[in-house]
From TrEMBL:
SUPFAM superfamilies listed in its UniProt record: Periplasmic binding protein-like II, Winged helix' DNA-binding domain
Alphabetically ordered keywords of this record: DNA-binding, Transcription, Transcription regulation
Domain HTH lysR-type: 6-63
Pfam families per UniProt: HTH_1, LysR_substrate
Identification of the protein by name: LysR family transcriptional regulator
Annotated source species: Archangium minus
Family: Belongs to the LysR transcriptional regulatory family.
Matches recorded under Gene3D superfamilies: Periplasmic binding protein-like II (3.40.190.10), Winged helix-like DNA-binding domain superfamily/Winged helix DNA-binding domain (1.10.10.10)
InterPro entries xrefs: LTTR, LysR_HTH_N, LysR_subst-bd, WH-like_DNA-bd_sf, WH_DNA-bd_sf
Length: 297
């Protein structure tokens, strides 16, 4: 059997293109021309010895071989990136205290922090999951080194905006929410316990549109909010981060709901010049947030 060494750059273009749903977007993100990415995809098909993409409407979809290769590509790239991280961070030592909201637990705690810990055994990480206001306060009082938190408009001394993300109306995936509005029924809202920035933005948008609403369920945790929405108790407003498979984004026009603004996201630092271990984790968190999608400011 002929031994094939798949091209890592080509695998990355393939993986990023499928993640973004567009190879033109992948080319832009990776700093390549679309023709260069097309050449890489052709090279992958030659190496695989079979087509990995097929026409699907106006776009491209995966063949069976493409689905298999994509799974391996993601694993290969993750191991490659982890190896680079490990080799470059053998001398790192110290202690990093990171704060984040529940929205980012799945993507950061399980993926980024686990990989970082394996690659930097000399660094101890302490993670705290909390509400926005508490995270910012703990950074300002130096109880946390870094915090990934929604930007409420109040700046901290060492704050770095990293993106802006559209708020979405979110409902259950397996049933139609409503109806409301036609006969004066208020929109049933599921939300965090007050005070909550996103909850206030949702109610203000409804009030401006003259749409009645009522709180039907409040929770101190994002898991409780998701569970209540999935059960059909009402709708909620969040970004797409952390959404579970039993939920779906609702079209405001289709359901008679007001348009919603974007919400800024920022990384807050306790110090202007963080320690090397803290600085390395900051770089990784920044990269991962960018990968998850959003409009950088």
């Amino acid at each position: 059997m002929r031994r094939v060494n798949f091209d890592l750059d080509a695998l990355r273009s393939f993986s990023v293109g499928m993640e973004l749903g567009s190879f033109a977007k992948a080319a832009d993100k990776l700093g390549r021309s679309t023709s260069a990415v097309s050449a890489q995809l052709k090279k992958l098909e030659e190496q695989a010895g079979t087509p990995i993409l097929r026409k699907e409407g106006r776009g491209l979809g995966l063949t069976d071989a493409g689905e298999v290769l994509l799974g391996y590509a993601r694993r290969i790239l993750e191991l490659n990136d982890e190896a680079c991280m490990a080799v470059g961070g053998l001398e790192l030592e110290g202690w990093v205290r990171l704060g984040l909201q529940e929205d980012f637990c799945e993507h950061l705690l399980s993926e980024v922090l686990g990989r970082f810990a394996r690659s930097h055994p000399g660094v101890r990480i302490e993670a705290k999951v909390a509400r926005n206001g508490e995270l910012v306060t703990q950074v300002q009082t130096a109880k946390l080194d870094l915090a990934l938190a929604w930007h409420t408009g109040n700046r901290t001394p060492h704050m770095e905006p990293v993106g802006a993300y559209p708020l979405q109306w979110i409902g259950p995936a397996d049933r139609l929410p409503g109806p409301w509005g036609e006969r004066g029924e208020p929109v049933p809202l599921v939300a965090f316990e007050a005070p909550c920035l996103v909850r206030s933005m949702a109610t203000e948008a409804l009030d401006r549109a003259g749409i009645p609403w009522r709180l039907v369920f409040t929770s101190p945790s994002l898991g409780g909010v998701w569970a209540a929405v999935a059960a059909g108790l009402g709708v909620t407003v969040r970004t797409h981060f952390g959404m579970t498979p039993n939920l779906r984004i609702l079209s405001p026009r289709e359901y008679g709901l007001p348009a919603l603004p974007e919400l800024g996201l920022a990384i807050h630092r306790a110090e202007a010049e963080p320690a090397p271990a803290c600085r390395r984790l900051l770089e990784i968190v920044r990269e991962r947030v960018a990968e998850l999608g959003g409009r950088l400011r």
